[in-house]
Each structure stands twice: as structure tokens, then as C-alpha cells.
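<goal> How does this chain fold?
<body> The protein record starts here
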Amino acid sequence: MRDILQQIYWSNTLEAYLIAIGGMIAAWLVLKGIQQIVIHGLKKKVHRTDNIFDDLLIEGIDRFLIPCIYLVVNYLIITRLTLHEKLAGLLNAAILAIIIYFVVRLINFMIHGAILVRMTVKHEAPGRIKQLSGVLLVVKIIVWSLGLITFIDNLGYDITTIIAGLGIGGIAIALAAQNILGDLFSYFVIFFDKPFEIGDFIVAEDYSGIVEKIGIKTTQVRSLDGQQLIMPNSNLVKTVIHNYKRLEKRRVVFGLRLMYSTPSEKIRQVPAIMKEIIGKKKDAAFDRAHLKTFGEFSIEYEVVYYIRSPDYLVYMNIHQEICFAIFDRFEKEGIRFALPTQIVHTKKMESSVFV
């Protein structure tokens, strides 16, 4: 039996191979025990606390650090064997790639989780949390790029030359993709400055609608007539945006025109009538009603009131009810609206007949 164990295969004895396999199995059992006893015990303990970040840390260790440790232990066991030079180099590169892979995954997981927890604690809207995916995509690309640079540097390549080449190439790409980079920068401005969010009703230049999606390059808006508007983020950042979703109340100004034949006592009653009609509406607040001016063909009033709701449909329903009530009340009081008047001047054509 001893002779069999001492037999050499590929520069190592059979005994050395069996010890390596046993070490891998033992390492797996130990780490599995740590996961089952220590990690799961810590999970139960941190779940009872109000701090969500410790849950995130334990979850990251369980998902990324433990598997990475197991692979590193296996690597150390394998390197105890006598390996071919090329195989050893390949194994070194592989374990380096694995370590960087798990470290990058852990960093991205912690950044993603920390930002998500932070936004949840601040009670951010679901649409804004969904919008977070665009920011995280850029962050993850940066972290993966740093991981790739670290990997290349540890392989022995001159990373300074590579970075310099990437810098020159980056300038060329930036010049060729100015619009794309402008939209990307504008996306970050929209995300952090929050001029609007998903679900807001906005008006930008001649376009209006409800925001459905905020992407890295464009924002999708659904107009009132059902069309989907695709707006570049750079254009939205440069223009004036009216966000009606954030209205606390809506100011309404409208005019009335009465005939000059209206009796003086009726003219004086109009402000009180306006106050009475508007005051009866639940979500409306009367502000003022004044005789504004004596127009060329009518007596003109200006009426101002507020709607205690940002909803456009609520505003239109209340204003319609007020208009109906004004019409009925004026008809009852004998107050007549001035009709639009147009004077057409004509010139009599004269003709002469010569005989």
C-alpha cells in the first residue's frame, strides 16, 4: 500500500494528490460549518436590529467573501504540489481573476445595497428607486474597469502605457460622442437635482405629458392624446420645465364682461355674488373680484380664486361648476353678459356717368 501511495504521476506522488483532495474537502466542510453556524447566527442577530447596513454587510460576506476564501484555500493547497511552470502561471492568473471578480462583485453589491437602503429610509418614490438603475449601471462600469486595470497590472503589464493609450482614445471617443455624453451628464443632473420624477405631469417648451421612464439618454413622456414623446435629457435640462405634479394649489384668473346697460346697483353686487358662488365650492378658495376697467364695449371684471388640488381634472370640474352657477345667477338677477362687438366701417362708392 505504501508503495502505491509513493508512485509518482506528473511530478507528484499519489499520496500528495490524496492529501490535496482531503484538504479541499476539509476546507469545504469548515467553511460550510462557518456559514451554517456563524454567518446564519449573525443574520438572525442583525435582523433584530434597526440598522439595515449590518444586514447588508453579513449578506455580502455570505455571498461573495466565503466563496472567495474557499477558492483561495484550494489554490494554496494546489500550489503545494509540484506544477508545470505554464500551469502554475495559468493558475496564478486564474486565482487573481477570481479574487478580483468576487471583490468587484462585493463592492458593487455594497454600493447598490447602501444606496437602495438610503433611498428607502428617505421614503423615496418607487419610480425614483427604479430610476436608480441607470446611475448604478455607470457606477458598476467604473468599478469593473478599475478591477480590469488592477488585473492587467498584476499580470506584469505596464499599466501606465495602457492608461495613456486609453486617455488618448477616450478623448477621441468623447469628441465623437459629445451628444451621448451630454445626455448622460444631463441624466445625472435630473437624478440628483430632481426637477421631475416618474409619474409627474410636466410641460417642456411645446410638449406636455406624464413622465413614464427616465433613461440614461432620453426621457419618455406620455402626452394627453396618448402619444409617446421621446425627449433627449440634454434638451430637458436646458429648457424651462413646468412640473404640475408639485402644485400645492392652482391659481385661477378669469374675466367677465357686462353690458353698459346693466343698472349701477347690479354692477356693485357682482363682487359679492362671485364671493358667494366660489365660497360654496369645497375645494375652491375665493381671493378677489374687482371691476377692472371700462372697456370699449363692455364693463370688465377680473375674478381670482384658488383650487386646493394640483389635479387638472379637479380644476376643470370646479371651474365648470362655477361658470354654470354664474350663468344661472346672472340670469336670475337680470345681469346680462356683453356680446362680442365688431364695427365694420364701409365707404359709399360714388360713380359718375359721362355722356
In short: Strands lie at 8-9, 12-13, 201-204, 207-214, 218-222, 228-232, 241-243, 250-258, 284-294, 299-307.
